[in-house]
Amino acid sequence: MSQVEDIKVLNIDGVTYAVDSMSEQVQQMVGIYNGWNQKESDARDQLMLVQAAKNDLSRQIIMQVRKDKEEADAAAAAAAAPAEAAPATTEAPAEEQKAE
Fold first, then answer.
1. Non-local CB neighbours of 8 within 8 Å, separated by 6+ positions
2. Longest Cα pair distance anywhere in the chain, in angstroms?
3. Residue, of 79 and 84, whose pLDDT is higher
């Protein structure tokens, strides 16, 4: 994860203040702010990872659905091919008709 640089200087009302020269209370608040800033950056990085993973999984789902459909279509075509090649008849074969 990326490291966020801590705030060391405050610019307020056109005046620059060094954080380490400010009161303990201001230093604590800036410390909290810096911590939250890092957490925000980490969350942003984590969000990018999750989005990339979702996009990759979405592509995998699409590819698998297409593969499954192709396999089902091929199986259906294979099952239909013998039925088309030798249609069922109710007539007796020619040899049996001659014997009668």
1. 18, 19, 20
2. 118
3. 79
Q: What is the mean pLDDT of the chain?
A: 89
Rounded to an integer, what distance in angstroms lies between the CA atom of residue 80 and that of residue 82?
6
Structure tokens at 1: 């994860």
The H or E element spanning position 86 is: none
Calpha distance 10→39 (Å, rounded): 20
Q: Tell me how crowded residue 26 is: count the other CB atoms within 10 A of its CB.
A: 13
Please name the residues in contact with 4: beta carbons below 8 A apart, sequence gap of 6 or more: 34, 37, 38, 41
Burial class for 84, CB neighbours closer than 10 Å (0-12, 13-18, 19+) = exposed
